[in-house]
Design brief:
58% helix; alpha+beta; Glutaredoxin; Glutathione S-transferase Yfyf (Class Pi), Chain A, domain 2; 8% strand; 216 residues
């Protein structure tokens, strides 16, 4: 029986989960959540996820929210031995470190800078933008001499980070001025299984939303 994934196509965390599922050749039963009309706040969804967030995965009697927890769960259960989330403790620790950098620094700073401007019309904050640039400089340094963010192989860290970094295309942040980031970005776009379907389509939806919102 396929797992249910409650999601929004434009959401970077949702796209990261979709990329993981494609890399593992898993079929998910996709359930669109209409955030605009408050579907995530309805009692039936709150019963599943009291944090009322997407993505949310339901696998039989297990419910998981938070994208990186979902991603690691999928590999642990359905991708034993996969280099996406290596079993070697040192290699896995590096992937975990990059995932936490994405959660706590890179994507967090992007959201803190761009989303108030996008959704609430707040003026762009130069100090917050500078923090995003600092996070990108870190990413560029991680990639010095490395094909992927956690070593020579594509991992969950790449899938999580590219879902977020690709969203920068909807903003005024020029991440491609960082040579290592630009090289990595083009590499992952061509090596992540099902990238077009799992990330590009949702990214186009996010970019269209941003364009419309910023016109208001």
């Amino acid at each position: 029986m396929p797992m249910d994934l409650y999601y929004v196509p434009g959401s970077a965390p949702c796209r990261a989960v979709l990329l993981t599922a494609r890399a593992l050749n898993l079929n998910l039963n996709l359930k669109l959540v209409d955030l605009h009309h408050g579907e995530h706040l309805k009692p039936e969804f709150l019963k599943i996820n009291p944090q009322h967030t997407v993505p949310t995965l339901v696998d039989d009697d297990l419910i998981i929210y938070e994208s990186r927890a979902i991603m690691t769960y999928l590999v642990n259960k359905y991708g034993k031995g996969s280099s996406l989330y290596p079993e070697d403790p040192k290699a896995r620790a590096l992937v975990d470190m990059r995932l936490n950098y994405d959660l706590g620094t890179l994507y967090n700073r992007f959201a803190d800078y761009f989303y108030p401007h996008l959704f609430y019309g707040a003026p762009a904050d130069k100090d917050k933008l500078a923090k995003v640039e600092d996070a990108l400089k870190l990413l560029d340094s991680f990639l010095e001499g490395q094909k992927y963010v956690a070593g020579p192989n594509l991992t969950l860290a790449d899938l999580s980070i590219i879902a977020g970094v690709s969203s920068f295309e909807a903003s005024d942040i020029d991440f491609k001025k960082y040579a290592n980031v630009k090289r990595w970005y083009e590499t992952v776009k061509t090596t992540a299984p099902g990238y077009q379907e799992a990330n590009e389509k949702g990214l186009d939806a996010f970019k269209a939303l941003a364009e419309n919102m910023l016109k208001k």
